[in-house]
Amino acid sequence: MALPWLQSNCPSCLCWSRGSRVVWAGLSPHAPRPALQGFNVNLVTTDRVSALHEACLGGHVACAKVLLENGAQVSPGELSNHLASPIHEAVKRGHRECMEILLAHEVDIDQEDLQHGTPLYVACTYQRTDCVKKLLELGANVNMGKRLDTPLHAAARKSSTEVVILLTDYGANPKCRNAEFKCALDLAVPNSKVEQVLLLREGNGFLSSLFFFF
């Protein structure tokens, strides 16, 4: 069954349902949007997926913008016990523009999800470097991740040298320890570039210089 804005022949949005999910086929940012007025943009499918979630999952920037302008919820709230928020979904898939639109609509940049952590932690876990850069530029807490696990732990675990450098440049504390009492260096692959960077940042200049001579 089609959603209300499709039934109203909205010229700006083409969507339809397949099973219990909403599929977004595209939205023109310049098209008129009167058909959304008066409808509940927070309608969810039977598996509790909202239109904004779908827009962020698919990287449909214009869709997300229209939904937010018309009052779409920016966090799952009581809709779901298992879904991540729209910003976590956008970051996970590297949809930086969707992420930025959400942040422009006052989404908490350090919103911590118990299952997924902060947006920065998610970006580091999935090695979404563009999202990492933008989140750091916009003031994300560089040491706030998932419980005691920091974004630097996630980057070291993934052997992501560029992300490790970014995080430490923005002041990430390499000595933070997680629930297993491990710091980022403990998670780095031995003799890897990530280990070299972390040794330098921890102030182990002599050991680090030895690594870089080879």
Automatic annotation (TrEMBL):
Keywords for the protein's UniProt record, in alphabetical order: ANK repeat, Repeat, Ubl conjugation pathway
Alphabetized InterPro entries for the sequence: Ankyrin-SOCS_box_domain (IPR051573), Ankyrin_rpt (IPR002110), Ankyrin_rpt-contain_sf (IPR036770)
Keyword Repeat: yes
ANK repeats: 47-79, 82-114, 115-147, 147-179
GO BP annotations, alphabetical order: positive regulation of protein catabolic process; protein ubiquitination
Family annotation (SUPFAM superfamilies): Ankyrin repeat
Gene3D superfamilies in the cross-refs: Ankyrin repeat-containing domain
Family to which this protein belongs: Belongs to the ankyrin SOCS box (ASB) family.
Protein name from the UniProt record: Ankyrin repeat and SOCS box containing 11
Organism of provenance: Athene cunicularia (Burrowing owl)
Lineage start: Eukaryota, Metazoa, Chordata, Craniata, Vertebrata
